Amino acid sequence: MSLPEISQKGYRSGFVALIGRPNVGKSTLLNKLVGEKIAITSPVAQTTRNRLRAVLTTQSAQVIFIDTPGIHKPHHLLGKRLVQSSRKSISEVDSLLIVFEGCHPPGKGDAYVVKLLQEHKKPVLIVLNKWDLLEKEKFQERKEEYKNLFPTFDWPIFCCSAISEDGCAGLVEAISKGLPIGSQLFPSGMISDQSEETLLSELIREQVLLHTREEIPHSVAVKIDRIQEVPPSNGKNAKSGHTAILATVLVERKSQKGILIGKGGAMLRTIGRGARLQMETFINASVYLELFVKVVPHWRSKPGSLAELGYKGD
Ligand code: GDP
Ligand code: MG
Predict the structure, then answer these.
(1) Domain check: are 83 and 154 in the same one?
(2) Is residue 266 part of a domain?
(3) Quick one: pLDDT at residue 191?
(4) Are 294 and 254 in a shared domain?
(5) Atom 9 (ligand 1): residue with closest C-alpha?
(6) What is the pLDDT of residues 27-45, one digit of tens each?
(7) One domain for residues 42 and 162
(8) Residue ranges of the alpha helices (H) in 101-245?
(9) Pocket mutation for ligand 1, best pick of 41, 98, 161, 164 (most atoms within 8 Å of C-beta)
(10) What is the largest CA-CA distance in the chain?
(11) What does the alpha-carbon distance between residue 78 and residue 20 come to, in Å, rounded to a whole number?
(12) Nearest atom (ligand 1) to Cα of 41
């Protein structure tokens, strides 16, 4: 990886956290803004568990985005850790991107997010995402409704769609301009500071959520057991090189294990195939993926299991 190259006069750099309720599109937006698949997204709420970082380097600024788990009222230990984690992100960054679901009017949960953020006195940009789902006639009215959530603050509002990309370029420009003057903090080629292991395990978890939906909501975690580079072999049975990845999917109940494995192992094969294809794109090599499923009752409430899986809440 090359050293920072861009550090000319007027260059800006800094940290920006994406904050908001679960499922408003924070991770999708982050992927779009950075232009690579970094954060996992899903139609199921609370997909993002760790604070993910992603780096966007342009000619005029370097933005380090921090994706956060959604802010909501916590119900169990994992939920509490997720919210703690989001609050910690807020105190560490240069500015905040508060993401709302612009296709719906603001609700109680949105007011809770604003209340949490007011205490911090950080520069804030408001994003009304999912603008593609809103009829044109409602644009102005919807903007006003959100503006009324923070009447005493002069936070600029950006309307965009993380799916169609409308409004995203303007958002990047505004974010960049709001950062402090400073040189590049990370090399240009770097996109995420998550370990390769974490990113790979997230790709598996995404496939689990995608294929099982309601049946296995949040009680699933993935641990990468081994990553091994297998060099190409010559001779009679010549094989090209590949990366072998062994991973364990943890669930809380035996019934969930059954769903994950599926009839004759069909579900696990579908999940494995989906994850393998994404991994191959991500690491740019052919991948051999082997998945195991293990039942660990109540892992979400056990500090030991949470720590082992890396959910520290700090
Ligand atoms: P997060 O929990 O805030 O990180 O939300 P995700 O990024 O995981 O997105 C939740 C769901 O909303 C996914 O199904 C996304 O495809 C969808 N989504 C995100 N942004 C948009 C958008 O701008 N328009 C539409 N139509 N859907 C979106
Ligand atoms: Mg997310």
Answers:
(1) yes
(2) yes
(3) 65
(4) yes
(5) 25
(6) 899 889 987 656 555 555 4
(7) yes
(8) 108-118, 139-147, 168-177, 196-212
(9) 41
(10) 75
(11) 18
(12) 8
One domain, residues 172 and 256: no
pLDDT at 6 over 50: no
Minimum-distance ligand 1 atom for the alpha carbon of 99: 3
Q: Is 47 in the pocket of ligand 1 (CB under 6 A)?
A: yes
CB 198 within 8 A of CB 51: no
Given a cut of 80, whether residue 255 has pLDDT beyond it is yes
Cβ contacts of 249 within 8 Å, gap of 6 or more: 204, 208, 220, 221, 222, 260, 291, 292, 293, 294
- Between the CA of 235 and the centroid of ligand 2 the distance, in Å, is 47
CA of 71 to the centre of ligand 2 (A): 11
Number of the ligand 1 atom closest to the C-alpha atom of 31: 7
| Interval 254-274 mean pLDDT | 94
The rounded Å distance from CA 10 to ligand 2 centre is 32
Domain assignment present for 3? no
Going by pLDDT thresholds of 50, 70 and 90, the confidence category of residue 285 is confident
Can you tell me which atom of ligand 1 is nearest the CA of 129? 23
Nearest residue (CA) to ligand 1, atom 2: 23
Neighbours of ion ligand 2 (CB under 5 A): 26-27, 47-48
Residue bearing tokens 């992927």 = 31
> Rounded to 10 degrees, what is the CA torsion of 211, 213, 214, 217?
100
Structure tokens at 11: 């260059």
Of all ligands present, the nearest one to the C-alpha of 213 is 1
- Domain holding 250, by residue range, is 196-232+240-308
pLDDT in tens, 201-224: 888 988 998 898 766 766 788 988
Residue 314 binned pLDDT confidence (cut-offs 50, 70, 90): very low
Query: What pLDDT does 57 receive?
Result: 86
